[in-house]
Design goal:
The chain has helices at residues 4-12, 32-37, 83-95, 121-128, 134-139, 177-186, 194-203, 219-222, 225-228, 239-247; strands at 15-18, 22-28, 51-58, 64-72, 77-82, 103-106, 111-117, 145-150, 153-160, 167-173, 190-191, 255-262, 273-276, 279-290, 295-303, 312-315, 318-323. It has 333 residues and is an alpha+beta fold.
């Protein structure tokens, strides 16, 4: 159930959501960038300290193993990836260490990760953290990162937008996570429940791995290629398939993730079939009651013949209108 109070806090002020669904890996050693360059889809070598990017890790067949946020901190690379595939990602990365001078570590249990989002997020963090300022946080570009302190303890802050409403992820030692949460509450940051956080993500059209993307997904189907893939870097695992679809297939894929505005009071569940007449043309992956649209909205994979915005389809017998993503356009705070 979407909470209007929590929603308004996230959209107008600041709200916090614990990222229990994220895993955290570190890559150290002088060869870390060149090592990751050959495995991930984005340009890791181009990152300077304080920068980051969004990337995918693919099979040789171009299917997704995971999506990741990659942060170059200057002395190590921090990877944030879905918790459900964290162990798989770590095991596969370890298989490709040959002569490279790199080491991998799993710090998921050592650090907690929480997002602080909304127009007042930088101001709230500026009051709570030491060693940084509201202005320095505002100046961070997407995927930018910096080090700060909380109660004398080191924290890492990264600029994020995958939450739907722009803000920051704060990485803090697990032992100090509760104290940080309390300090943020005292600074006026509201707690954001899961249902409301999901509604904000869906309104922004952000696909989530494990729900809107999985091991059968090609990045182009999910529409993440402009953010996750570098088309100017050298080879990476799965590149041949991506290039073949783009050049020989002119970017056309059999299905694509689109938005649906549903003319009904009922929010469809994940997996609900989408139809055009009697023909099954796709399925819902995520859905929510949208406070902004004042109706249910959904992310759904649709057959390529039904991708034109404005096309009317049906979900559970109710009319639904195909919509480009995002439903709402948000500017970075």
């Amino acid at each position: 159930m979407v909470s209007d109070a929590a929603y308004q806090s996230a959209r107008r002020h600041a709200a916090r959501v614990d990222r229990f669904d994220r895993g955290r890996l570190v890559v150290t050693g002088p060869d870390r960038a060149s090592y990751l360059q050959g495995l991930l889809t984005n340009d890791i070598v181009a990152l300077n300290a304080g920068q980051g990017c969004y990337a995918a890790y693919l099979t040789p067949q171009g299917r997704m193993i995971a999506d990741l946020f990659v942060y170059e901190l200057g002395d190590l690379v921090l990877l944030s990836t879905p918790l459900a595939v964290k162990d798989t990602v770590l095991a596969k990365l370890e298989q490709f260490i040959f002569t490279e001078d790199v080491k991998l570590g799993d710090v998921t249990g050592n650090f907690a990760q929480m997002a602080v989002i909304g127009p007042d997020a930088a101001a709230a963090l500026g009051r709570v953290l030491e060693g940084t300022t509201d202005a320095a946080l505002h100046a961070l570009l997407e995927h930018g990162n910096l080090r700060a302190r909380f109660a004398g303890q080191p924290v890492i802050v990264t600029r994020v937008t995958d939450t739907g409403e722009p803000g920051f992820d704060v990485y803090v030692e697990t032992a100090h996570a509760a104290a940080l949460g309390s300090a943020l509450t005292a600074a006026g940051v509201a707690a954001l429940d899961r249902d409301t956080a999901e509604a904000i993500r869906i309104e922004a059209g952000v696909p989530r791995f494990g729900r809107d993307m999985d091991e059968d997904t090609i990045p182009l189907e999910a529409g993440i290629e402009t953010r996750a893939i570098s088309f100017s870097k050298g080879c990476y695992v799965g590149q041949e398939v991506i290039i073949r679809v783009l050049h020989r297939g002119h970017g056309r894929v059999a299905r694509k993730l689109m938005g649906l505005r549903i003319e009904s009071d009922a929010v469809p569940s994940a997996g609900t079939v989408v139809r055009a007449g009697t023909r099954e043309i796709g399925h819902v992956t995520s859905s929510a009651q949208s406070p902004a649209a004042k109706q249910p909205v959904a992310l759904a994979y649709l057959h390529r013949d039904f991708l034109t915005p404005g096309t009317t389809v049906s979900v559970n017998g109710a009319p639904a209108v195909v919509t480009e993503l995002p439903f709402l356009h948000q500017e970075a705070n």
